[in-house]
Amino acid sequence: MTIGTFTIRALDPLRDAELLHRWVTDPKAAFWMMQDARLQDVEREYMRIAAHEHHHAYLGLHDGEPAFLMESYDPRHVELVGLYEPEPGDVGMHFLVAPTDRPISGFTRAVITAVMDELFADPRTRRVVVEPDVGNKAVHALNEAVGFVPVREIDKPEKRALLSFCTRDQFLAARGVAV
Known about the structure:
There is one protein chain. By secondary structure, this protein is of the alpha+beta class. Helix content is 28%, strand content 27%. The chain contains 5 helices and 7 strands, in the order βααβββαβαββα. It has a 7-stranded mixed beta sheet with strand order 1-2-3-4-5-7-6, sandwiched between helices. Strand 2 and strand 3 form a beta hairpin. The longest helix has 14 residues. The protein is globular. The two termini are 25 Å apart. The relative contact order is 0.14.
C-alpha cells in the first residue's frame, strides 16, 4: 500500500504561521513545547529560524497538502553546543506531524522516512542527530525503526533528552536496502 507523495518546501514564517500555530498548540504536540504560544510567538520563532544561518524550517506536504513540519540544524552552532562532540557531516533534525481527525496507518513512519530521505539527499550529511524528550517513548520507537541508535541522556535547558544518531548506512539498513 502506498501512502502518497511527500514533498518538502521552505517554510514561509508569515504565510504559514496560522497553520503552524494550530499544529504546535495541539495537545498531541506537547513535546514541541509551544502549547501556550500565541500566533505572534509562532511567527517570531519561525522568523528567528528563517534568519538563522545554521537552523532551517520546512513545510512537508502530503499529496500537495500541508502535513508536517521539519527542521534541520547544524549541531555545532544550534541546540547541542557543548552537549556532545559533533562530527563532520552531522545534521540535527526535528519533525512534527500535523494533527488530524483521519489518521492513516503508517503515516508518521512515512513522514520520518521522507524527512530522512531529504536530509541524506545532501551528500555532505553523514549522520542525523536527534534529541527528543526522554519521556517521548513513541518517537524513540519511531526513531529506532528508521535506524537511530540511542547514545545517552543529556540535559538541555528545556528538557532531559535522549541523544541518538543515525548514519546513512543505518538508515538504509532499516529500510531493507543493501549497503
